Amino acid sequence: MRDDLFELLWEGLLETLYMVAWSSVFALIIGILLGIILVVSEKGGILEAPIVGKIIGTAINGVRSLPFIILIVLLLPLSRLIVGTSLGPTAAIVALSIGASPFLGRIIENSLKEVSAGKIEAAKAMGATPLTIIFRVLIPEALPALVRGMTIAVIAITEFTAVAGAIGAGGLGSLAIRFGYQRFREDILIATVIVIILLVQIIQLSGDSVAKAILKKRHLG
Predict the structure, then answer these.
(1) Using CA of residue 37, residue 42, residue 45, residue 46, what is the dihedral sign?
(2) Distances in Å between the alpha carbon of 76 and those of 37, 83, 112, 167, 194?
(3) Phi/psi at 115 (nearest 5 deg)?
(4) Chain center to CA of 108
């Protein structure tokens, strides 16, 4: 084990956390919007517009069908346009956000569909507006499932950062490739794998804890 191991790991970890945090925020915003539109626009939905839902659903499936490494390459010009460069953690956030949004949108769609139709109908009968139903019925009722879905999405983004490292995004993935693989540093390769596994476990445990706390509070209430 060489003296620079911990310094390199720390730098790579900070870059990975930076990418994961910001990408999760942007993907969450876009994903929630996509998921809500898919649910409310479907036939029989509170804002029925099947054509809109079909167009968005087709676009989502198209993006999800692309391997992430190809999606990153396709989005390089967009990254350069938005942040002024196609290299580094900041540039990778663009591709990570767009790549994770459709995945998260489908998760949110499925979570919202778990809400009882009876509760939605009851809200309609009381004269609730579509926005009220979305923010007072759909999202609160589906919150535990949404938290679990978001946890899965954040873990996926964490894994995506390792792939993004292959084209200069930085982070633990780049560290593993540039030092662990190309320079035959087995200590770095093994250490980055361990750190990524631990990071994923922490994210999963945190998400599960939040979801359980929400359910416990609901039952006590």
Answers:
(1) positive
(2) 28, 10, 33, 10, 29
(3) -70, 135
(4) 11
Q: How many structural domains comprise the chain? A: 1
| pLDDT tens per residue, range 9-40 | 899 899 999 999 999 999 999 999 999 999 99
* Spatial distance between the Cα atoms of 166 and 126, rounded to a whole number of angstroms: 54
48-90 confidence digits (pLDDT tens): 888 998 999 999 988 888 888 888 888 888 888 888 887 888 8
CATH number (domain holding residue 185): 1.10.3720.10
| Angle at which helices 139-164 and 68-83 cross, to 10° | 90
- Residue (of 146, 135, 137, 193) closest to 165 by Cα position: 193
Question: In angstroms, rounded to a whole number, what is the distance separating the alpha carbons of residues 205 and 98?
Answer: 25
What is the pTM (predicted TM-score) of this model?
0.86
Quick one: pLDDT band at residue 1, thresholds 50, 70, 90? low
Copy the structure tokens of residue 184. Answer: 């035959």
| Separation of alpha carbons 72 and 82, rounded Å | 14
Residue 76 structural domain: 5-220
Rounded to an integer, what distance in angstroms lies between the CA atom of residue 90 and that of residue 55? 30
pLDDT score for 170: 82
